[in-house]
Inverse folding.
């Protein structure tokens, strides 16, 4: 069970790292709009660009 | 996600009146008028269009290869037919460096960034469409639209594109964009949200991790865990709980300290005491390696508490955004008279007004800046700014306050103070008013909660004293349990959470509460009193007949009437001006214009005094030589408007207005709920009776002056009725103020907007029906919440005092009871579809 003396401090360190990452993500505005990205994925433009269409039409 | 909309958009409700379903516009869904034959090929299939506006917009969407929009949209857009306000026609104004100063931010040497408000967005596909389209403009470097706030952040290269071109691109696809100065309140809201998120995260993450360390101690059999492992786990828990208590719970401690310093007891006091004493005792137990630790309870308790507050904050911010949108809907442009005393006016941005400029302010409009009246006389409503509820007379030379409302007559004002000071202070006043007013029920709940906390503290200390005699080792935990388990939060949150959620839900439906008491009162209202023109009807008057009463021509009479009515904001004025058509460009000069609220307009044209308006009003100067019996002129449900001069009668116009299609359903619902419905109108008896008959309203009164309407309401109130008044326009302002709760139609004049306890922004009566329904549900949810909060406390506190509840159970119990209250309140925000939703009408007329 001695390994716990290493693992538990390690878990604390991990918590700290995750906390820092989360603070950064809040700061960069990732949580300001929670709805949009979901729609954006669905609405992505699947059409090829203009000139490609004219070539494909031949 | 959404079901793709195919050939005929399904959202339109089928009006029963129409015998055969008219073909509807593929773009906006409005019925296509006869003789219109327009179409656009969308993805190879020709689709019918109702007007040139829709055709242009659809063509722009096709040309820009954005037809995917039509597959993904789940709501129809506004019709672009009139979606572009006159103000935006001068888009070039937005390129002026002075004007840009306030909202455009330089990013690089040539790169600029601005925040735009987008209007006309009805579904997520609209946002995609705008994003794609704007991003395709050459020179636009980035565009990012927030789905929740409908604000777009745009960056562009100044050398390659101008801001006006970006705004024009947005209007080409049928939407409207306004530059927007991201105000301080918005920044504050964002900061608040981010801080709350961080606190919630720290508490939640800390809670989970501390729980992991606590579980071994719970499940280990006695003696299987060595003392140093237990000590290690305790120290790890202590380290993780420290930020939860020190950072996440900091607001509770701060508020509790503030309360203590002010010598009062708020609901944060027991929370802070409970968290603080449980944490301190656990720290002591860890340091001395004795007793029990409750770090997991502390962390969990803080997390649940913050969770409840976070939900409440989100709901509140959503509601506030609605208020802000309203505040910004006030005009941003002024009519400047560049060469005063010449009558020419030009439309300029208010921010470009300078000291000494002369502006024309019509009746019902807002004064764009502080100034002095140089021509005309009127009365101004300064209630919003000064709290003075009576209108203030403004004669020549009087000071007017920017942001106050010109009530009665057009005036010419010389600007004395510029800067955004006046307008912004008006906006802030409105917003602050809505937020700062505590409804009576909330005040009551707060007072009760204060007593409750005081009693609780006494109980907790007494319990601790008793237990220290009975069983010294348990005294502290019982003390903490009593403090934590009792839930003044639930009691304090019960009412505001429900009201906030209802406010948010209503503003989502286009009904905006602008006063604290509004929702509570609307739920209690027993009488619903409606104005007719513009409220029960669309307020779009059409001249159906012109009868010449003297030696004149119909055309000329219309021109004269339109010349006078151009100063009016009443629907009749708009109808007459519309009928005058092309002649509007070449109207005779009018001087000495005076508006008589609810009666008509007087003005001098070519040295002759003319009056246009109600028959009795015109009779005063035209004399009664021409017999005009009211019965004979309005039997077809039409409104007569007379024109006369000092020389005699000139003409009689008959105007017709359509009843809103959703009005019948609203009134049926109200009547079914046992509320009384009346119609009070200044209009002629025939027209009112016709509307009342269509809607099935027994109590309809016609030909009332504002004073008579006011008196009628007063009489109802004396009989104990709680009156809700729904009105529109200058005529109704004093009546709206008299009613216990008032609803102003959003399409009405600016004055009515600031008078209503509610503003029906959507102009759709079915939204009002939903609002009434919501207010009733809010009232019942408040009752449920209060009953729950009391019941919970009556059971939990004695149990805790008896020592049956450990602190962690108390933590769960208290947080759960707060959460139940908040979640119960949030049920109001769910978009369910009550009886009226089928009648949702996206007609632009109604907006």
């Amino acid at each position: 069970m001695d390994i716990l003396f290493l693992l538990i401090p390690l878990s604390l360190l991990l918590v700290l790292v995750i906390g820092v990452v989360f603070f950064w993500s809040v700061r960069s505005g990732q949580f300001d709009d929670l709805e949009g990205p979901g729609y954006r994925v669905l609405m992505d433009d699947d059409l090829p660009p203009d000139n490609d269409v004219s070539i494909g039409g031949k | 996600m959404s079901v793709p909309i195919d050939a005929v958009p399904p959202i339109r409700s089928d009006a029963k009146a129409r015998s055969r379903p008219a073909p509807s516009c593929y773009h906006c869904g409005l019925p296509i008028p006869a003789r219109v034959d327009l179409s656009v090929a969308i993805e190879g299939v020709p689709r019918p269009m109702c007007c040139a506006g829709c055709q242009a917009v659809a063509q722009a969407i096709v040309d820009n290869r954005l037809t995917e929009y039509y597959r993904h949209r789940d709501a129809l857009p506004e019709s672009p037919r009139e979606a572009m306000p006159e103000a935006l026609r001068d888009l070039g104004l937005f390129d002026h460096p002075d004007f840009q100063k306030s909202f455009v931010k330089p990013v690089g040497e040539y790169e600029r960034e601005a925040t735009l408000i987008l209007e006309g967005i009805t579904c997520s596909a609209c946002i995609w469409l705008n994003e794609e389209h704007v991003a395709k403009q050459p020179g636009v470097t980035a565009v990012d639209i927030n789905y929740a706030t409908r604000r777009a952040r745009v960056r562009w290269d100044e050398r390659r594109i101008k801001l006006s071109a970006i705004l024009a691109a947005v209007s080409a696809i049928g939407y409207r964009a306004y530059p927007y100065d991201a105000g301080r309140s918005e920044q504050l809201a964002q900061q608040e949200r981010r801080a709350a998120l961080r606190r919630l995260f720290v508490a939640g993450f800390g809670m989970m991790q501390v729980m992991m360390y606590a579980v071994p101690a719970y499940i280990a059999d006695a003696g299987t865990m060595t003392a140093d492992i237990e000590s290690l786990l305790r120290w790890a828990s202590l380290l993780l709980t420290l930020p939860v208590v020190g950072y996440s719970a900091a607001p509770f401690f701060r508020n509790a300290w503030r309360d203590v310093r002010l010598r009062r007891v708020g609901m944060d006091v027991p929370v802070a005491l409970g968290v603080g004493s449980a944490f301190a005792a656990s720290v002591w137990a860890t340091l001395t390696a004795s007793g029990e630790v409750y770090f997991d309870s502390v962390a969990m308790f803080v997390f649940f508490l913050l969770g409840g507050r976070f939900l409440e904050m989100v709901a509140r911010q959503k509601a506030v955004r609605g208020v802000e949108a309203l505040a910004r809907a006030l005009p941003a442009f002024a009519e400047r008279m560049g060469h005063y005393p010449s009558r020419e006016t030009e439309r300029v941005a208010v921010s470009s007004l300078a000291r000494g400029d002369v502006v024309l302010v019509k009746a019902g409009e807002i004064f764009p800046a502080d100034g002095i009246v140089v021509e005309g006389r009127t009365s101004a409503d300064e209630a919003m700014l000064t709290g003075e509820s009576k209108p203030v007379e403004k004669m020549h030379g009087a000071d007017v306050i920017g942001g106050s409302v010109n009530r009665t007559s057009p005036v010419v004002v010389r600007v004395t103070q510029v800067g955004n000071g006046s307008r912004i202070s008006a906006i802030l006043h409105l917003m602050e008013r809505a937020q700062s007013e505590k409804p009576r029920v909330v005040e009551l709940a707060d007072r009760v909660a204060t007593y409750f906390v005081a009693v609780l503290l006494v109980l907790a200390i007494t319990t601790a004293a008793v237990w220290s005699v009975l069983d010294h080792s348990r005294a502290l935990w019982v003390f903490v349990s009593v403090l934590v388990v009792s839930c003044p939060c639930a009691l304090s949150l019960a009412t505001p959470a429900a009201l906030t959620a209802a406010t948010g839900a209503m503003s989502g439906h286009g009904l905006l509460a602008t006063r604290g008491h509004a929702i509570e009162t609307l739920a209690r209202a027993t009488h619903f009193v409606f104005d007719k023109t513009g409220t029960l009807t669309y307020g779009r008057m059409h001249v159906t007949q012109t009868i010449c009463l003297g030696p004149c021509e119909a055309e000329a009479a219309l021109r004269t009437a339109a010349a006078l009515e151009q100063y009016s904001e009443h629907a009749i004025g708009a109808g007459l001006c519309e009928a005058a058509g092309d002649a509007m460009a070449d109207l005779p000069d009018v001087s000495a214009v005076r508006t008589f609220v609810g009666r008509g307009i007087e003005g001098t044209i070519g040295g002759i005094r003319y009056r246009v308006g109600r028959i009795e009003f015109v009779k005063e100067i035209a004399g009664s030589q021409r017999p005009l019996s009211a019965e004979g002129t309005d039997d077809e449900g039409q409104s007569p408007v007379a024109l006369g001069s000092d020389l005699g009668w000139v003409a009689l116009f008959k105007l017709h207005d359509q009843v809103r299609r959703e009005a019948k359903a609203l009134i049926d619902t109200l009547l079914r709920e046992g509320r009384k419905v009346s119609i009070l109108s200044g209009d002629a008896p025939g027209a009112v009776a016709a509307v009342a008959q269509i809607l099935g309203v027994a109590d309809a009164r016609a030909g009332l002056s504002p004073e008579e309407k006011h008196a009628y309401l007063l009489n109802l109130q004396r009989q104990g009725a709680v009156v809700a008044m729904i009105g529109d326009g200058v005529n109704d302002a004093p009546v709206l103020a008299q009613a216990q709760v008032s609803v102003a139609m959003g399409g009405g004049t600016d004055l009515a907007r600031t008078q209503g306890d509610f503003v029906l922004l959507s102009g759709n009566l079915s939204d009002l029906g939903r609002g009434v329904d919501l207010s009733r549900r809010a009232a019942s949810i408040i009752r449920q919440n209060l009953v729950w909060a009391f019941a919970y406390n009556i059971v939990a506190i004695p149990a805790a005092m008896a020592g049956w509840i450990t602190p962690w159970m108390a933590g769960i119990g208290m947080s759960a009871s707060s959460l139940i209250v908040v979640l119960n309140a949030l049920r109001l925000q769910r978009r369910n579809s009550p009886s009226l939703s089928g009648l949702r009408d996206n007609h632009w007329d109604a907006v």
